[in-house]
Amino acid sequence: MIADVRGYLREARMPHILCPGCGHGIVLGALLRAVHALQVPQDRLAVVAGIGCSSRLAGYVDACTLHTTHGRALAFATGLKLARPELTVVVLTGDGDGLSIGGNHLIHAARRNVDLTCVLFNNAVYGMTGGQVAPTTQPGWLASTAPYGHREPAFDGCALVQGAGGTFVARGMAYDPLGLEEIFREALRHPGFSYVEVLTDCPVYFGRYNRLGEGPELLWSQKARFTEVGQMLVQKRFVSPDGTAPPGRVDGLQFGILHRAQRPEFTRVCWGRAARGGGE
Amino acid sequence: MAKLRLVRGNTACAYGAVSAGCRFYAGYPITPSSEVAEEMARLLPRVGGVFVQMEDEMASLAACIGASLGGLRAMTATSGPGFTLMQEHLGYAALAEIPCVVVDVMRLGPSTGFPTAPAQGDVCQARWGSHGDYPALVLSPAGVQEVFDLTARAFELADRYRTPVVVLYDEVVGHMMEPAALPPVGELEQAGTWRRPSPPVRARYLPYAYTDGTPPPLVSFGEGVRYHVTGLIHDETGFPTVDPAKVGEMLGKLNRKIPEVPAEGLEPELYATEDAEVVVAYGITARAAKAAVKQARASGLRAGLLRPRVLWPSPERVLRELASRVQAFVVAEMNCGQWGREVERLVCRTAEVVPVNQVDGTPLAPEAILQAVAEAGGRTGCGVAAGRTA
User: Fold this and answer.
1) Each residue of B240-275: b (16+ CB within 10 Å) or e?
2) What is the pLDDT of residues A220-274, one digit of tens each?
3) How far is A54 from chain B (nearest CA, A)?
4) Which residues of A touch B226 (CB under 8 A)?
5) Strand B277-280 vs strand B328-333: parallel, antiparallel, or unpaired?
6) Measured between CB atoms, which of A43, A62, A75 is closest to B59?
7) Whole-number pLDDT of residue A70
8) Residue ranges of B 26-65 with Cβ closer than 8 A to chain A
9) Which of A185, B49, B99, B263 is the most exposed place for a label (fewest CB within 10 A)?
10) Which residues span the domain enclosing A174?
11) Is the peptide bond before B32 cis (omega within 30 degrees of 0)?
12) Contact A83 B240 (CB under 8 A)
């Protein structure tokens, strides 16, 4: 039985701006079901977002929502979380927003281990600006700024965040919303910086340019391209609270909960010192 | 009880902020502003506040805006290159109407420039640095005590008008030491953690529904009221709108909300402006200008001084009134004439505007200003009393 999370949505703001076939709604649905399962009160939920299609989702969530500037959502969220540690703060960002213009803020939020849940929507393209290449676009793929095929390598956001000291790193896909929901639950529970990268799809600017079809075809291609992962998803092997299950690795990308660690959480460190009157 | 202490302008800035209830500082090191951060790093943990050194200036102001939405009075401090990086978020805070305080301790630019020689080259950037039309509220202290006073007042103004407030001073004011009345740390410690009170919300909270030209007080996130904040043009609900009527109305209200004198005691300082010529200067240059005016009067030249405490909005009423009776304005500043253009715009050819500019990394000396006063007096024939010349 899938929970009805319409109470978490501002239905008066509908219809939304997303294109038919876009995978972002699937991701938001999974996220809100996880929020619902953990019984996070809406007044205690803050959603902070940057700029791009995925970041526009913040406006549809009935919570304290902050739609910020391009790439900087994590910096805004750091200030908000430090001021209001009791809030559950979720950051919505895209692959261009979070890994290109906002890459610096991503590594430093991970390094500080601020208790934020960062959801990065990876559709391998800049959707809102019309289909330009992203740092996640693979070599050879077509985009409006790569009419002869992209000439740069892509990079792995999960490896980046882990390297920067992130204490919860996971990757899921819009193809598997139920598995994604479980990842989100674990991420929201994690007392530190959690990073969940989600493969989603852009039929209008990625699927069309690369002749991969519409939304359903793109989601199916996630499954087909990541067969091994699909098998893992079926077996739920990817949810491993102790982090021992081997993550799947296909096409250079790993799926599941890839890394967990415990380190002092930044908000507590700051307020602990403040409460002690500055003494070390 | 405040005690007189011999301190730097930057130290007074931190004390002014904390005494006004600032409990959040996020910043990035840059000379000549770094002492503000260092002092805040010492003070804030002792008064129940949070200090964080961010990864860059964009992140610094972003974190301040986030903390302010969470109910803490928040500040950052920087200098020219960092101030340039902050422009996007100054525009954001102006449009989203989130209170915050940005201190810019000016050094000679452009670019990395001449670190860290004094200048007043960020005056126009403080007004027009971000894209689009937005209101600016920029305070200009001329001494250490005034850095304390105006930094403290900046927080009151930021909350009242729900806007970013820039405290703009030059390297000399930031680094020079003067006696200033600062509250003892023990007194600040007793105040403890302070949050901006959120007004009670009975029905639906409309965060951008103005009353008498002013936005409603900000309700902090986490106080049981859910609403949306965005850098997109929005209507009174806070949600984006593309309706030209609403867009025009919103931007109109935004750009009209800050009055020329934003609060009592922030009128320009007028010294001996009853006749003849007026020297216009601010920041450390105003100190040199005052010395020049005194020397001028001692030698029989009828000169006075206008020193704005608020650079933006500019003191339009006072300048226009003065322009109706004086012959010349000598505008002295450590830049190529940034605020002088504003004076020219306001006096609108009813009086001569004489620029005295210096961009060599040294403060303007009284002699250069005095010379311009004497020359202007000689030209207009009215600046000189009883036929005496300097």
Assistant:
1) bbeeeeeeeebeebbeebbeebbeeebebeebbbee
2) 877 665 555 445 444 444 444 444 444 444 455 778 899 999 999 999 999 986 6
3) 14
4) 42-43, 62-65
5) parallel
6) A75
7) 98
8) 26, 42, 44-46, 48-52, 54-56, 58-60, 62-65
9) B263
10) 47-275
11) yes
12) no
Could you tell me which of A259, A232, A230, A231 has the C-alpha nearest to residue A243? Answer: A259
Here the ipTM equals 0.96
Cβ of residue B192 closer than 8 Å to a chain A Cβ: no
Residue with tokens 């000016």: B106
CB-closest option in B72, B226, B232 to A43:
B226
Q: Which residue has the tokens 């106080």?
A: B223
Beta-carbon contacts below 8 Å between A and B: 141
How many structural domains does chain A have? 1
* Dihedral sign computed on CA atoms, order B251, B252, B255, B261: negative
Chain A environment of B71 (Cβ under 8 Å):
83-84
Structure tokens at B45: 């943990």
* DSSP code of residue B200: P
- Neighbouring-strand partners of residue A249: A254
Which residues touch B217 (CB under 8 Å, ≥6 apart)?
A: B159, B162, B198, B199
Domains of chain B: 3-189 (3.40.50.970), 269-380 (3.40.50.920)
Q: Read off the pLDDT of each residue in B295-304 and give the average, rounded to a whole number.
A: 94
Digit-coded pLDDT (tens) for B15-55: 999 999 999 999 999 999 999 999 999 999 999 999 999 99
Q: Which of A13, A75, A104 sits opposite B63 (nearest CB)?
A: A75
Instruction: For chain A, give the longest Cα–Cα distance.
Output: 62
What pLDDT score does A233 carry? 46
Using an 8 Å CB-CB cutoff, list chain B residues near A270: 50-52
Residue B253 has pLDDT above 80, yes or no: yes
CB contact under 8 A, A67 and B230: yes
Spatial separation of the C-alpha atoms in residues A194 and A129, rounded to whole Å: 28
- Tell me the three state secondary structure of residue B49: coil
- The CATH number covering residue A193 comes to 3.40.50.970
Q: A124, A214, A188, A198: which is closest to A158 by C-alpha?
A: A198
B99 close to A (CB below 8 A): no
B193 shares contact with chain A (CB less than 8 Å): yes
- CA-nearest of B342, B336, B338, B332 to B373 is B332
In a domain, A29, yes or no: no
Q: Is A12 on the interface with B (CB under 8 A)?
A: no
Take residue A179 and report the two structure tokens written for it.
């598995």
pLDDT digits (tens, 9 = 90+) for A162-201: 999 999 999 999 988 999 999 999 999 999 999 999 999 9
Q: Rg of chain A's alpha carbons, rounded to an integer?
A: 18
CB-based contact B230 A63, cutoff 8 Å:
no
